[in-house]
Automatic annotation (TrEMBL):
This is GST N-terminal domain-containing protein. It comes from Verticillium longisporum. Residues 326-375 are annotated as: Disordered. NCBIfam families: PPR. PPR repeats lie at residues 892-926, 1044-1078. Keywords: Repeat. It comes from the Eukaryota. Residues 326-338 have a biased composition (Polar residues).
Amino acid sequence: MAEAQDAHVKLYWLNKSRAQNILWLLEELNVKYDVELFHRSKETMLAPPELSKVHPLGKSPVIEITPPGSTDSIKLAESGFITQYLCDHFPEGQRLIPQNWKEGRENQIAGETEAWMRYQYLLHYVEGSLMPILVMTLIISSLKSPNVPFYVRPITTAAANKVIAMAVFPNAKKHLAMIEQLLETVPDGGSYICGKTLSAADILLSFALIAGEHRFDAMGEWPGGSAKAAHPKVFEYIQRLKQEPGYKRSTDKIRELDGEFEEPAALKKCDLMIQTQQNHPTRRVVCSAPQDAMFAARTICTTCRSRLLAETVAKGASVRHQSTVPAASTFTNSTKTTRSNHDATKRHKHVPTHKPSSATSERIPRGSNDGNAKRRALDLFESTINSARRSESQAEADTQKLHQIARNIDAILHNARENPEEPYAAALYACVVDDILPLLRQSDSGLLPQFAYSKATEALRAVLEVKVNACDDPTLPRASELCGTLAEIGMKTPGRLDPFLGLLNWLIAKTPAEVDAAGSPSVDSALFDQRLLEDLLGCWKGLSLSRHAYKARGLDTRRPTPRNPRNISDPLYNCHVEFPLLVSLDPKKLVVVLATTFVLLSDPRAQSAASTEALEAVKKELKVFVQPFDAARLESHFTANPALWEYVAPRIDWAPLQARIQSKPKQPIEFHSPTKTAHANVKVPTKRISYSAWHKRLSTLFKLNDANGLREAWEELTNPVNDTDRADKLRQCPELFDYVLNQCCSKHGSGGDKFWESFTNQTMYYMNTIGLVPTIRTYTSMMEGWKIAKRLRSVQLLWNQVVESGMELDHHIWSSRISANGALGNPNAGMKVLTEMQAIWEESVANGTQHKAVKPDISSVNAAISGFLRNDRMSSVQDVLAWANSQRIEPDIFTYNKLLGYMLKKGRMEEADNILSSMKNSGINPDSATFTIILETALAEMSMQDPDAQRVTVRRVFAEMATCGLEPNQQTYAKMLHLLVRSGDGAKVPIEAVLSHLRASGLQPSPQICTILFEYYFSRRPRDWDAIRALITDRRSRTRVLTDRIFWETVMRHFHAAGEVRAALEIFYDMDDWGIWPSLSVLEPILRSLTAAREWEEAQKLVTTVRKQARPLSTDPDGRYYKQAFWFVARDCGLMQEEA
């Protein structure tokens, strides 16, 4: 047995075959094994001819076992024989075989245990009796497939249905009935087929049952309406097998090797049979919709659900959503807005030079009253969906190439394990750079399939292992090249920094510094290798390209000073801002790389060996990240790199930036009015502070868990300079304090509990000092926060205090308490609170004090359901619904939608259909939220469908809406597009289908739709400039009647981010013509880019134009309008000269 454990096992695996059973078995046996993958033909579903070289029958599974210390191997075929052999010869196999003999009856006839007899029988039964039924079903069902010519298909379909009804279905019923009986009579009351523990018989039986799980219903009419209803224990057993850790490991293994795993239950046809009661009470209606159109790839397709939804709305009135957006032609007499600050005709119109034609150059004359304007605009809009794309056949060819490249990488790695002395790193790197990267660059999405990404990263890791030990090997790629390749592949692991780190270790180890008598580095030490120094600078250049913070804001230049000095007390702050991904992966490794690079480039040996100008530029950038650290804080990051710390420690000669900043006295900022106006000396009284502005600022700080930023914001909020009325203003904004308390309570348990507790107390204390009394809403906000933090005890304590205070309760705080107990308490806690609420109400009615109590209603029930569903407590949900029924509380549409969304999310389609049926019986009409829930489920599966199936799915979604009496409006189209664009290039075809339907409906594309499409077209690689130009031209034709401020701001942001500052300015001046003023947060990065490029004339024109715009808030020179960053940049650059 011990010798067998060291044997080498190879599995020849075929998709959608019983080889998956053997893979699961190997996982349970805990043996070392390899897997060679084979795939069925997509047309015939037959095994590939290459498998015939493994076994004469060309079938799978087949395993090959090589004993330790031997070159001779044996090959085994047939699942039952393989299972029996492996369990008999490997140590872990003994736990998968039930006990053989009854006690005292060893080696006697009939002395075997019942469990062992079952085990032996099932090993032969599965392959000999059960699987032939399923195979026969597949073969006969193929006579109904689209592969059969359409003119004979009715005949073959009728024949197939007859054979299934006469021969297949009766046998299937017998088999499931027998398995049901076996599960009811398991020895010792176990939950597996042979007893209380998993056995090899369970593993062998799993493929047949999982493959047939969704096929049985298609065979005929079962008692109770479905196979699951007729044999519930069988289907419970199937789900139990699918939750086994070994089964999950086997499926994960295939996903790792092949990029995906498709369960054998995935059908090409949805054969769900629906019983119809009209005219033909016993007639079976078979839906032949493609399986890809099914909402959740489980049991029911869109056509079937359409019938259920149609029946649901049959008892109520149809809900029609009409578009309320008027046609463009109704506004042709709009007053033309003129510009008062500069002559539009004198403007220079810049267009992107590297595109075939400008995105802003095609213009429709303003004020045109062409009667065909609407049709022309729609024609232009439709042109956005007709741009050229790579054909589907090309995409499939690329996928085949990637599979071949993955096999080549496997072969190189296998050879490297067999012959480790032979060089292999260069060959692996060539596979990635010469083969994979060109295909990645051609891809519209800019992403690799998962299997190709896994192989590429595996190859690069192997190259890294060699490179770190031979940085000066000329046959290997340079460290900077490796960094660039890792970034382009999109490797999201700490390994991104390994080439950089390896080069630093090599430089320091191979060029040790001599020390003088005092132990300080000597100036006589050898110089660093200039070639490796250049490589180091290249590494920094590649790393610097991943700095996203300034690009996100649209800035072309980076300041050599910290972006936010107030947060310098957190030395990692600048790293968080500039390298968010790398900090999240491994902040210590990032700090080590930055600090060591800075120190090494400051070393005189480096300055003598390389270009001083290049070194100084890099050091200036690195200084921003390194200077906030003192020696103690820096050392904690070098625990895994002691050799580097030994080099860095004696060379730390900077004072932490924190001390210098904190030593400066805090000076109040003076704000100056940008223009001389009649309002210059008039202070506009303010009754309230801006809730939205403070909410946005505090929300950002809470998301970052920025304690220092919150302290400063709170100080600025509660104790501002030159605002003696702040306390009065804050008393008028209690909702801001409710929000702060909610966020503080929700942060408990996420780290820094002392700070959040202190901040909560500080907020409550300040409310008390200004006379702002907490309301029931305040306490509800705190309870909701603690619910998020999963602090049920805090919820209970606060509840007790509120009750003791005698404060009048409302539905909201009761619902919050019920939901918290349902989600966080024991299974009965939520129900207990609900019954307590009912008891208090009944007592108050008896005492005549019902005005002081709250009567439970459907909102209370929904709160309990929400809490239970959050914790997957469906049995508790059923108890609540039963209680509500006893209290005559009827479910509302929210109840049904909540349950429906949960069932669809979990893939429990049969229960989802039951919910829809219950809605029908209750006379509750599905609303737009119901449709949205189903829509999200449908569209989530669309990225895995082929283009034809995607078009079918879109058509059926709209057909389903029509069946349910829901007419799509602009919001519906926008919601669909929003869901689709998440899939990237995989959404191309369905987006085209939705846009075509929109055009056919006669509705105008809304600003929201255009914004979604613009961001989608702009995010593609390469950018779809033809579609972008057509979209902008369409919006220009209607901007005078549709004030698309958000759309045009989005265009400006993206043009600027792409480096097209002039094109962004062109849009700005057009908006000024139209009387639409973009927000200053959009204009600030554009102004920074102009000043950085020293284009002072353009910068002055931009500032002057904004100053002359009659914006509502510009009349208050001391208001927050002039405290925005745009004006700081303008003043710092001397662009705020007063006009004569």
